[in-house]
Amino acid sequence: MRFKPKPFTRPVPFKCLHCLDCCRGRHVYLTLKDIERIARKGHDPQDFVTFSVEGNQIRFVLTVREWDLGCVFHDLETGKCGIHDVNPIICRIYPFMVSRKPLGIEGEKPFEYKGKKLWLYYDEGCPGIKAEGSETVISPEEIAEFGLKFERELEGTDLEGLAELIERLEGDSHE
Ligand code: SF4
Ligand code: SF4
Predict the structure, then answer these.
(1) What whole-number distance in Å separates Cα of residue 85 and Cα of residue 98?
(2) Could you tell me which residues come within 8 angstroms of residue 157 by beta carbon, excluding any fewer than 6 positions away?
(3) 142 in any annotated domain
(4) Nearest Cα residue to 96 out of 174, 24, 13, 25
(5) What's the pLDDT tens digit per position in 82-122?
(6) Which residue has its alpha carbon closest to ligand 1 atom 6?
(7) Does residue 174 fall inside a structural domain?
(8) Which of 76, 77, 89, 156 is the most buried (most CB within 10 A)?
(9) In which domain, by residue range, is 55 found?
(10) DSSP state, 86?
(11) What is the CA radius of gyration of the chain?
(12) Mind telling me which Pfam families this protein's record contains (predicted)?
């Protein structure tokens, strides 16, 4: 599904309806911490990490099934996320998004958080936003915090780090 950004400037009621539309056809970036958390639950990084070359950088993204572009952790039987308790930080941020630059959308304005200027959005296409019966209200502060955490983790995510992580995981499994 395509992200249809709307400015997120004040708290919004949200209730995930588990339609899992957001788990198909998406490019989900992984940080090394994401990879480690998922691997420690018994999943081999070879089965869920795909390399994506972007300019002169290599990023790690969640592997998708070829036939429907669904995430490999999307459970076809239950329709739910198979790693809900350790899913990647990007999945936790969605249906919200954090940007360092404005996207040029009507009504957007910068959100100052911990001395950083951020632009926050939500996906108008997610049926859980302002869904009937939403008991949870998501605040811009919560999402900004996740966004900064993602940025910090992504900074230290590279091939060398992945090689070290795999070595560490293998060492731990032989103990
Ligand atoms: S976050 Fe939105 S799009 Fe994703 S499963 Fe929940 S309701 Fe559906
Ligand atoms: S890890 Fe879970 S929430 Fe994230 S895209 Fe895959 S199935 Fe969806």
Answers:
(1) 22
(2) 30, 31, 32, 59, 60
(3) yes
(4) 13
(5) 999 999 999 999 999 999 999 999 999 999 999 999 999 99
(6) 16
(7) no
(8) 89
(9) 5-157
(10) G
(11) 17
(12) CxxCxxCC (PF03692)
Binding pocket residue ranges, ligand 1, CB within 6 Å: 16-22, 94-95, 126-128
Number of domains, the chain:
1
Of ligand 2's listed atoms, the one at least distance from the Cα of 26 is 5
Look up tokens 């900064």; give the residue: 148
The answer to whether residues 165 and 32 touch, using CB atoms and an 8 Å cutoff, is yes
CA distance 162 to 168: 10
Give me the residues paired with residue 129 across strands.
Answer: 14
CA–CA separation, 148 and 87 (whole Å): 17
Q: Is residue 19 assigned to a domain?
A: yes
pTM attached to this predicted model = 0.92
Which one of 14, 17, 80, 87 would you pick to mutate in the ligand 1 pocket, going by the greatest count of ligand atoms within 8 A of its CB?
17
